[in-house]
Amino acid sequence: MSKTLAVFNMKGGVGKTTTAYNLAVGLVKFHSAKVLLVDIDPQGNSSVSLGIPIWELELQLKDVLQKRATVDEVVIFSKSGVHVIPSNILLAEEEIPISGLPGRELLLRKALSNISNNYDFVLIDCPPNIGVFSVNALMASQEVIIPVDMSYLGLLGINAVERAITMVRSALDHPIELAGVLGTRFDGRNKLSKEVLSSLEQHFGSKMFQAVIPETVKLREAPSYGISIYDHDPTGAGAQAYEDFVTEIVSQYE
Ligand code: ADP
Ligand code: MG
Fold first, then answer.
1. Given a cut of 90, is residue 17 above it in pLDDT?
2. Is the CB of 13 under 6 A from ligand 1?
3. Which of 150, 140, 152 minimizes the C-alpha distance to 105?
4. 80, 25 Cβ separation under 8 angstroms
């Protein structure tokens, strides 16, 4: 059965994109899963990280949301094996027009409804806010993965994320579940990293993923080559941590 998961946090720089694309590639590489990554952030970072030249797109996610193109016409087969619905900055220009459409919260869910069963996993990389695009992502998803970076502001931001998810559940009547919270950008030399991780563990208990993603130069570099961490630094700590995370995700849905 297909699972649709949003990678969401309103804070920027917490590792949403890094997590979304390395999760997508890991599911294909280690588990032979069929994976679609939907890039609903106008920054297009997850598309770029998978080697897609976002400056040359003829069609992209915005055309699907505006019913000018079907998903089939827009999907790109990236060299990693992940299928991608890409975006670039032109998506940002459509935020206000899309916000005025009837049924605006359900545009992505409807667009994916015909094709999600072709995939084992549909992953949606969200922008760092709770505007119409993140709402579409959450409304299209059964569960949400929340990456949290090991900073004081990261910890504070959790409250806003929980409120946004509660809003989707109650005001929009969508029973989205928490897949789990992923600690990211962990620096073992840093006392704050350990304190933030232990606060998160206290707050989320078994909803914390066991994997914790370290802060590494290799994870930061990989997008500039358009490749995953498993190809950029296969034996490094970042690849190991993301592979462990991928295994946890797979075992949740077996
Ligand atoms: P978000 O999508 O939440 O805004 P990103 O995944 O784009 O966050 O990460 C923000 C920046 O930090 C990017 O330059 C990314 O390469 C870098 N980054 C993310 N996670 C790590 C990590 N674990 N180690 C080192 N750099 C990271
Ligand atoms: Mg991002």
1. yes
2. yes
3. 140
4. yes
Tell me the residue type at 126: C
- Looking at all shown ligands, the one closest to residue 215's CA atom is 1
Q: Is 133 left (phi over 0), alpha (psi -120 to 50) or beta?
A: alpha
Distant-in-sequence, close-in-space partners of 44: CB < 8 Å, separation ≥ 6: 54, 86, 87, 88, 89, 91
Class for domain 3-252, per CATH? alpha beta
Whether ipTM > 0.85 holds is yes
Which residues sit with Cβ closer than 5 angstroms to ligand 2, an ion? 16-17, 45
Closest alpha carbon to 115 in 254, 27, 4, 251: 4
How many residues are listed for the chain in this entry?
254
Tell me what the mean pLDDT of segment 81-104 comes to. 96
The helix or strand, by DSSP H or E, that contains position 111, with its residue range, turns out to be: helix 107-113
Query: If you measure from the C-alpha of residue 176 to the centroid of ligand 1, how many angstroms do you get, rounded to a whole number?
Result: 25
Which residue's CA is the nearest one to ligand 1's atom 12?
A: 13
Kindly list the domain boundaries of the chain, sorted by start residue.
Answer: 3-252
190-204 pLDDT, tens per residue?
A: 999 999 999 999 999
In this structure, the residue with its CA closest to atom 27 of ligand 1 is 220
Residue with the nearest Cα to atom 11 of ligand 1? 13
**Residue 216, helix vs strand vs coil:** coil
Query: Is the beta carbon of 183 within 6 A of some atom in ligand 1?
Result: no
Distance 83 CA to ligand 1 centre (A): 22
